[in-house]
Write a structure and sequence with these properties.
There is one protein chain. This protein has about 375 residues and is an alpha+beta fold. It has a single domain, classed as Deoxyribonuclease I, Chain A. It is about 20% helix and about 35% strand. The strands form 3 sheets. Strands 1, 2, 3, 4, 5, 6, 15 and 16 form an 8-stranded mixed sheet that branches. Helix 6 links the parallel strand 11 and strand 12.
Length: about 375
Protein backbone atom coordinates (compact mmCIF):
# COMPACT_ATOMS: atom_id res chain seq x y z
CA UNK A 1 0.00 0.00 0.00
CA UNK A 2 1.35 3.47 -0.82
CA UNK A 3 -0.44 5.35 1.92
CA UNK A 4 1.38 4.07 5.02
CA UNK A 5 3.00 6.33 7.57
CA UNK A 6 6.53 5.73 8.86
CA UNK A 7 8.58 7.67 11.36
CA UNK A 8 11.92 8.62 9.75
CA UNK A 9 14.09 6.13 11.64
CA UNK A 10 11.94 3.17 10.69
CA UNK A 11 11.61 4.40 7.13
CA UNK A 12 15.40 4.52 6.75
CA UNK A 13 15.75 1.08 8.31
CA UNK A 14 13.12 -0.30 5.95
CA UNK A 15 14.84 1.13 2.88
CA UNK A 16 18.27 -0.08 3.97
CA UNK A 17 16.84 -3.57 4.18
CA UNK A 18 15.73 -3.42 0.57
CA UNK A 19 12.16 -2.13 0.97
CA UNK A 20 10.44 0.10 -1.56
CA UNK A 21 7.82 2.73 -0.87
CA UNK A 22 5.18 0.79 -2.76
CA UNK A 23 6.14 -2.64 -1.46
CA UNK A 24 4.77 -4.77 1.36
CA UNK A 25 4.31 -2.76 4.56
CA UNK A 26 4.97 -5.59 7.00
CA UNK A 27 8.12 -5.06 9.07
CA UNK A 28 9.89 -8.24 10.23
CA UNK A 29 9.45 -8.81 13.93
CA UNK A 30 13.20 -8.56 14.62
CA UNK A 31 13.10 -5.00 13.22
CA UNK A 32 10.32 -4.10 15.64
CA UNK A 33 12.24 -4.74 18.85
CA UNK A 34 14.64 -2.32 20.51
CA UNK A 35 16.03 -2.02 24.00
CA UNK A 36 13.28 -1.28 26.50
CA UNK A 37 10.47 -1.61 23.97
CA UNK A 38 8.25 -4.29 22.48
CA UNK A 39 6.51 -3.66 19.20
CA UNK A 40 2.99 -4.94 18.63
CA UNK A 41 0.89 -4.94 15.46
CA UNK A 42 -2.88 -4.74 15.90
CA UNK A 43 -5.84 -4.50 13.53
CA UNK A 44 -9.52 -3.64 13.73
CA UNK A 45 -11.87 -4.85 10.98
CA UNK A 46 -15.63 -4.73 10.60
CA UNK A 47 -16.13 -7.48 8.01
CA UNK A 48 -19.82 -6.65 7.35
CA UNK A 49 -22.74 -9.00 7.05
CA UNK A 50 -23.08 -7.99 3.39
CA UNK A 51 -26.51 -6.34 3.36
CA UNK A 52 -28.31 -3.24 4.54
CA UNK A 53 -30.14 -4.61 7.58
CA UNK A 54 -31.32 -1.15 8.59
CA UNK A 55 -34.21 -1.55 6.17
CA UNK A 56 -35.53 -4.30 8.46
CA UNK A 57 -34.92 -2.40 11.70
CA UNK A 58 -36.71 0.58 10.19
CA UNK A 59 -39.85 -1.34 9.21
CA UNK A 60 -43.02 0.53 10.18
CA UNK A 61 -45.26 -2.53 9.85
CA UNK A 62 -44.33 -6.07 10.99
CA UNK A 63 -46.05 -7.40 7.86
CA UNK A 64 -43.30 -5.74 5.79
CA UNK A 65 -40.55 -7.80 7.38
CA UNK A 66 -40.71 -10.94 5.17
CA UNK A 67 -40.27 -8.85 2.00
CA UNK A 68 -37.55 -6.69 3.54
CA UNK A 69 -35.76 -9.76 4.89
CA UNK A 70 -35.84 -11.31 1.41
CA UNK A 71 -34.30 -8.16 -0.06
CA UNK A 72 -31.52 -8.14 2.54
CA UNK A 73 -30.92 -11.86 2.07
CA UNK A 74 -30.56 -11.46 -1.70
CA UNK A 75 -28.07 -8.64 -1.22
CA UNK A 76 -26.10 -10.69 1.30
CA UNK A 77 -25.80 -13.56 -1.16
CA UNK A 78 -24.68 -11.19 -3.92
CA UNK A 79 -21.90 -9.72 -1.77
CA UNK A 80 -20.38 -13.22 -1.54
CA UNK A 81 -18.51 -13.45 1.75
CA UNK A 82 -16.33 -16.44 0.69
CA UNK A 83 -14.89 -14.25 -2.07
CA UNK A 84 -14.50 -11.27 0.26
CA UNK A 85 -12.76 -13.44 2.85
CA UNK A 86 -9.90 -14.01 0.42
CA UNK A 87 -9.35 -10.26 0.16
CA UNK A 88 -9.50 -9.93 3.96
CA UNK A 89 -6.89 -12.67 4.24
CA UNK A 90 -4.68 -10.73 1.81
CA UNK A 91 -4.85 -7.71 4.13
CA UNK A 92 -3.87 -9.81 7.12
CA UNK A 93 -1.04 -11.46 5.22
CA UNK A 94 0.48 -8.07 4.32
CA UNK A 95 0.82 -6.98 7.93
CA UNK A 96 0.57 -10.19 9.98
CA UNK A 97 -0.87 -8.40 13.03
CA UNK A 98 -0.38 -10.03 16.40
CA UNK A 99 -4.00 -9.34 17.35
CA UNK A 100 -7.12 -8.62 15.29
CA UNK A 101 -10.44 -7.31 16.53
CA UNK A 102 -13.26 -8.39 14.21
CA UNK A 103 -16.84 -7.10 14.24
CA UNK A 104 -19.93 -8.39 12.39
CA UNK A 105 -18.67 -11.96 12.27
CA UNK A 106 -21.89 -13.70 11.30
CA UNK A 107 -23.28 -17.20 11.09
CA UNK A 108 -26.19 -17.40 8.64
CA UNK A 109 -28.70 -20.26 8.95
CA UNK A 110 -31.75 -21.12 6.85
CA UNK A 111 -35.00 -23.08 7.12
CA UNK A 112 -36.84 -23.51 3.85
CA UNK A 113 -40.26 -24.20 5.36
CA UNK A 114 -40.36 -21.46 7.96
CA UNK A 115 -42.50 -21.27 11.06
CA UNK A 116 -41.39 -17.96 12.61
CA UNK A 117 -44.28 -15.99 11.07
CA UNK A 118 -46.77 -18.33 12.74
CA UNK A 119 -45.09 -18.12 16.13
CA UNK A 120 -43.18 -21.38 15.71
CA UNK A 121 -40.07 -22.03 17.77
CA UNK A 122 -38.14 -24.52 15.63
CA UNK A 123 -34.77 -22.83 14.99
CA UNK A 124 -33.18 -22.68 11.57
CA UNK A 125 -30.19 -25.03 11.53
CA UNK A 126 -29.01 -25.25 7.91
CA UNK A 127 -25.74 -23.31 7.87
CA UNK A 128 -25.30 -21.26 4.72
CA UNK A 129 -22.32 -19.20 5.81
CA UNK A 130 -20.11 -19.35 8.88
CA UNK A 131 -18.02 -16.20 8.41
CA UNK A 132 -15.45 -17.09 11.05
CA UNK A 133 -14.85 -20.56 9.67
CA UNK A 134 -14.60 -19.21 6.11
CA UNK A 135 -12.07 -16.55 7.12
CA UNK A 136 -9.98 -18.97 9.17
CA UNK A 137 -9.87 -21.35 6.21
CA UNK A 138 -8.69 -18.50 3.97
CA UNK A 139 -5.94 -17.60 6.45
CA UNK A 140 -4.82 -21.21 6.73
CA UNK A 141 -4.67 -21.52 2.94
CA UNK A 142 -2.13 -18.68 2.95
CA UNK A 143 -0.01 -20.46 5.53
CA UNK A 144 -0.94 -18.02 8.30
CA UNK A 145 -1.15 -19.25 11.88
CA UNK A 146 -4.05 -17.63 13.72
CA UNK A 147 -6.30 -18.83 16.52
CA UNK A 148 -9.62 -17.64 17.89
CA UNK A 149 -8.50 -16.14 21.19
CA UNK A 150 -11.95 -15.01 22.36
CA UNK A 151 -15.42 -14.18 21.08
CA UNK A 152 -18.84 -13.08 22.25
CA UNK A 153 -22.23 -13.82 20.74
CA UNK A 154 -24.46 -10.79 20.30
CA UNK A 155 -27.76 -10.83 18.44
CA UNK A 156 -29.19 -14.23 17.49
CA UNK A 157 -32.28 -13.43 15.46
CA UNK A 158 -34.59 -15.51 13.29
CA UNK A 159 -36.97 -13.78 10.88
CA UNK A 160 -39.57 -14.89 8.34
CA UNK A 161 -38.52 -14.29 4.75
CA UNK A 162 -40.58 -14.34 1.59
CA UNK A 163 -39.57 -17.31 -0.57
CA UNK A 164 -41.79 -18.36 -3.50
CA UNK A 165 -40.11 -21.78 -3.51
CA UNK A 166 -41.45 -22.66 -0.06
CA UNK A 167 -44.89 -24.25 0.25
CA UNK A 168 -46.10 -21.43 2.47
CA UNK A 169 -43.97 -18.92 0.52
CA UNK A 170 -42.20 -18.19 3.80
CA UNK A 171 -38.79 -19.41 4.88
CA UNK A 172 -36.83 -18.49 7.99
CA UNK A 173 -33.38 -16.91 8.02
CA UNK A 174 -31.37 -16.85 11.24
CA UNK A 175 -28.47 -14.45 11.76
CA UNK A 176 -26.06 -14.73 14.69
CA UNK A 177 -23.52 -11.97 15.25
CA UNK A 178 -20.18 -12.32 17.02
CA UNK A 179 -17.33 -10.03 17.97
CA UNK A 180 -14.07 -11.96 17.75
CA UNK A 181 -10.41 -11.58 18.65
CA UNK A 182 -7.88 -13.46 16.54
CA UNK A 183 -4.35 -13.95 17.84
CA UNK A 184 -1.27 -14.91 15.89
CA UNK A 185 0.07 -18.32 16.83
CA UNK A 186 3.10 -16.92 18.68
CA UNK A 187 0.99 -14.70 20.97
CA UNK A 188 0.59 -15.91 24.55
CA UNK A 189 -2.97 -15.54 25.84
CA UNK A 190 -3.02 -15.24 29.64
CA UNK A 191 -6.76 -14.80 30.12
CA UNK A 192 -9.98 -13.71 28.49
CA UNK A 193 -13.19 -11.88 29.42
CA UNK A 194 -16.35 -10.65 27.76
CA UNK A 195 -19.66 -9.01 28.51
CA UNK A 196 -22.81 -7.44 27.12
CA UNK A 197 -23.85 -3.86 27.64
CA UNK A 198 -26.94 -3.26 29.71
CA UNK A 199 -27.84 -0.49 27.26
CA UNK A 200 -29.45 -2.19 24.26
CA UNK A 201 -31.38 -1.04 21.24
CA UNK A 202 -35.04 -2.10 21.24
CA UNK A 203 -37.05 -2.00 18.00
CA UNK A 204 -40.71 -2.39 19.07
CA UNK A 205 -42.15 -2.56 15.54
CA UNK A 206 -40.03 -5.55 14.63
CA UNK A 207 -40.00 -7.02 18.16
CA UNK A 208 -36.20 -6.98 18.13
CA UNK A 209 -33.65 -6.30 20.85
CA UNK A 210 -30.08 -5.76 19.66
CA UNK A 211 -27.47 -6.76 22.26
CA UNK A 212 -23.92 -5.52 21.85
CA UNK A 213 -20.85 -6.16 23.94
CA UNK A 214 -17.09 -6.40 24.26
CA UNK A 215 -14.50 -9.13 24.33
CA UNK A 216 -10.97 -8.94 25.76
CA UNK A 217 -7.78 -10.91 26.26
CA UNK A 218 -4.78 -10.49 28.52
CA UNK A 219 -1.73 -10.88 26.32
CA UNK A 220 2.01 -11.38 26.68
CA UNK A 221 4.28 -10.44 23.77
CA UNK A 222 8.07 -10.12 24.21
CA UNK A 223 7.84 -9.92 27.99
CA UNK A 224 5.16 -7.21 27.86
CA UNK A 225 1.68 -7.83 29.16
CA UNK A 226 -1.33 -5.73 28.20
CA UNK A 227 -5.11 -5.87 27.88
CA UNK A 228 -6.54 -6.03 24.32
CA UNK A 229 -10.24 -5.16 23.93
CA UNK A 230 -12.58 -5.32 20.93
CA UNK A 231 -16.06 -3.79 20.76
CA UNK A 232 -18.84 -2.62 18.44
CA UNK A 233 -21.01 0.24 19.68
CA UNK A 234 -24.53 1.00 18.48
CA UNK A 235 -24.73 3.23 15.37
CA UNK A 236 -26.20 6.70 15.85
CA UNK A 237 -28.22 7.50 12.75
CA UNK A 238 -30.31 10.11 14.59
CA UNK A 239 -29.53 12.23 17.68
CA UNK A 240 -32.06 10.29 19.76
CA UNK A 241 -29.76 7.23 19.69
CA UNK A 242 -26.76 9.03 21.16
CA UNK A 243 -27.66 8.32 24.83
CA UNK A 244 -27.68 4.58 24.02
CA UNK A 245 -24.26 4.63 22.34
CA UNK A 246 -22.79 6.85 25.02
CA UNK A 247 -24.15 4.58 27.76
CA UNK A 248 -22.41 1.61 26.13
CA UNK A 249 -19.11 3.51 26.04
CA UNK A 250 -19.54 4.55 29.67
CA UNK A 251 -20.18 0.95 30.71
CA UNK A 252 -17.08 -0.23 28.89
CA UNK A 253 -14.76 2.42 30.28
CA UNK A 254 -16.08 1.80 33.79
CA UNK A 255 -15.13 -1.86 33.44
CA UNK A 256 -11.72 -0.98 31.99
CA UNK A 257 -11.04 1.52 34.79
CA UNK A 258 -10.42 -1.49 37.05
CA UNK A 259 -7.72 -2.75 34.68
CA UNK A 260 -4.16 -1.98 35.84
CA UNK A 261 -2.46 -3.25 32.68
CA UNK A 262 -1.88 -1.04 29.67
CA UNK A 263 -4.85 -1.18 27.29
CA UNK A 264 -5.28 -1.35 23.53
CA UNK A 265 -8.95 -0.79 22.70
CA UNK A 266 -10.11 -1.38 19.12
CA UNK A 267 -13.40 -1.60 17.32
CA UNK A 268 -16.20 -0.01 15.37
CA UNK A 269 -17.24 2.84 17.64
CA UNK A 270 -19.68 4.50 15.22
CA UNK A 271 -18.41 7.86 16.44
CA UNK A 272 -15.89 10.19 14.83
CA UNK A 273 -13.51 12.99 15.79
CA UNK A 274 -14.93 15.58 13.40
CA UNK A 275 -18.47 16.23 12.19
CA UNK A 276 -20.89 19.10 11.76
CA UNK A 277 -23.34 17.41 14.14
CA UNK A 278 -22.16 17.16 17.75
CA UNK A 279 -24.03 13.91 18.39
CA UNK A 280 -21.75 12.14 15.90
CA UNK A 281 -18.63 13.08 17.90
CA UNK A 282 -19.83 12.87 21.52
CA UNK A 283 -18.78 9.28 22.21
CA UNK A 284 -15.41 9.76 20.54
CA UNK A 285 -14.77 12.80 22.72
CA UNK A 286 -15.93 10.96 25.83
CA UNK A 287 -13.35 8.22 25.26
CA UNK A 288 -10.62 10.75 24.44
CA UNK A 289 -11.37 12.74 27.59
CA UNK A 290 -11.09 9.67 29.80
CA UNK A 291 -7.43 8.85 29.35
CA UNK A 292 -7.40 7.18 25.92
CA UNK A 293 -5.27 8.27 22.97
CA UNK A 294 -6.43 7.79 19.38
CA UNK A 295 -3.41 6.22 17.67
CA UNK A 296 -4.34 7.72 14.30
CA UNK A 297 -4.38 11.30 15.56
CA UNK A 298 -0.69 11.10 16.37
CA UNK A 299 0.08 10.94 12.65
CA UNK A 300 -2.85 12.66 11.02
CA UNK A 301 -1.61 15.20 8.51
CA UNK A 302 1.93 13.86 8.15
CA UNK A 303 3.48 14.41 4.75
CA UNK A 304 4.11 10.66 4.29
CA UNK A 305 0.35 10.10 4.05
CA UNK A 306 -0.55 10.50 0.38
CA UNK A 307 -3.97 8.82 0.25
CA UNK A 308 -7.04 8.98 2.50
CA UNK A 309 -5.32 11.63 4.59
CA UNK A 310 -8.19 11.80 7.06
CA UNK A 311 -7.99 8.06 7.73
CA UNK A 312 -11.68 7.57 6.91
CA UNK A 313 -13.00 4.04 7.34
CA UNK A 314 -16.60 4.18 6.09
CA UNK A 315 -18.52 3.84 3.79
CA UNK A 316 -18.65 1.81 0.64
CA UNK A 317 -22.08 1.12 -0.87
CA UNK A 318 -24.06 -1.64 0.83
CA UNK A 319 -23.80 -3.73 -2.35
CA UNK A 320 -19.98 -3.32 -2.29
CA UNK A 321 -19.62 -2.61 -6.01
CA UNK A 322 -19.10 1.15 -6.03
CA UNK A 323 -16.36 2.14 -8.46
CA UNK A 324 -15.76 5.54 -6.87
CA UNK A 325 -14.24 5.62 -3.40
CA UNK A 326 -16.14 7.86 -1.00
CA UNK A 327 -14.96 7.09 2.51
CA UNK A 328 -16.52 9.96 4.44
CA UNK A 329 -16.35 8.94 8.12
CA UNK A 330 -13.64 7.74 10.50
CA UNK A 331 -15.54 5.53 12.93
CA UNK A 332 -13.17 2.55 13.36
CA UNK A 333 -10.49 3.31 15.93
CA UNK A 334 -7.46 2.00 17.77
CA UNK A 335 -7.22 3.58 21.21
CA UNK A 336 -4.37 3.14 23.71
CA UNK A 337 -4.19 3.75 27.44
CA UNK A 338 -0.88 3.41 29.24
CA UNK A 339 -0.71 2.14 32.78
CA UNK A 340 -2.60 4.65 34.91
CA UNK A 341 0.03 4.22 37.64
CA UNK A 342 2.99 4.92 35.39
CA UNK A 343 4.19 8.04 37.29
CA UNK A 344 4.88 9.93 34.10
CA UNK A 345 6.72 7.15 32.29
CA UNK A 346 6.54 6.97 28.53
CA UNK A 347 3.21 6.35 26.84
CA UNK A 348 2.37 3.63 24.33
CA UNK A 349 3.72 4.89 21.01
CA UNK A 350 2.73 4.57 17.36
CA UNK A 351 5.34 3.89 14.69
CA UNK A 352 3.18 3.09 11.66
CA UNK A 353 -0.47 3.13 10.65
CA UNK A 354 -2.27 1.97 7.54
CA UNK A 355 -5.83 1.91 6.24
CA UNK A 356 -6.75 -1.17 4.21
CA UNK A 357 -9.73 -1.83 1.97
CA UNK A 358 -10.03 1.76 0.74
CA UNK A 359 -8.29 1.63 -2.66
CA UNK A 360 -9.66 0.22 -5.92
CA UNK A 361 -6.83 -2.31 -6.02
CA UNK A 362 -8.11 -3.79 -2.73
CA UNK A 363 -11.25 -5.19 -4.38
CA UNK A 364 -11.82 -8.83 -5.26
CA UNK A 365 -11.43 -10.03 -8.88
CA UNK A 366 -15.18 -9.62 -9.44
CA UNK A 367 -15.12 -6.03 -8.14
CA UNK A 368 -16.36 -6.50 -4.56
CA UNK A 369 -14.94 -4.48 -1.71
CA UNK A 370 -13.83 -6.66 1.24
CA UNK A 371 -16.36 -4.81 3.45
CA UNK A 372 -18.34 -1.60 3.57
CA UNK A 373 -15.73 -0.47 6.12
CA UNK A 374 -12.00 -0.09 5.72
CA UNK A 375 -9.70 -1.67 8.27
CA UNK A 376 -7.12 0.01 10.49
CA UNK A 377 -3.64 -1.34 11.20
CA UNK A 378 -1.38 0.11 13.89
CA UNK A 379 2.20 -0.74 14.78
CA UNK A 380 2.62 0.17 18.45
CA UNK A 381 5.49 0.03 20.87
CA UNK A 382 4.81 -0.94 24.45
CA UNK A 383 7.15 0.66 27.02
CA UNK A 384 8.49 -1.40 29.88
CA UNK A 385 7.17 -0.72 33.38
Amino acid sequence: MTKRILIPALACLFLLCGGETGAQTDLPDQMMETAGEARVKVMTRNIYIGADVDIILGAQDPNEIPILAAQAFAQMMSTNFPERALALADEIQKHKPHLIGLQEVYKIRFQKEGDAAMGGTEPATQVLYNYLKILMTALEAKGLDYQVAARIKNIDLELPMYNPEAVSQLSDVRVTDFDVILARGDVEILGKSRGHFQAQLIVPTAGITVPRGWVAVDVKIRNRTFHFVNTHLEPVSVPELLPLQLAQAQELLTILAMQTEQIILVGDFNSMPKADEEYKTATYNFIKNNGYVDAWRRYEGRSELTYNKAGNTYGHDSGLRNETVDMYERIDHIWVRSNVFNDGKQDIGTTLMDIVGDELADRTPSGLWPSDHAGVISYLWIPKY
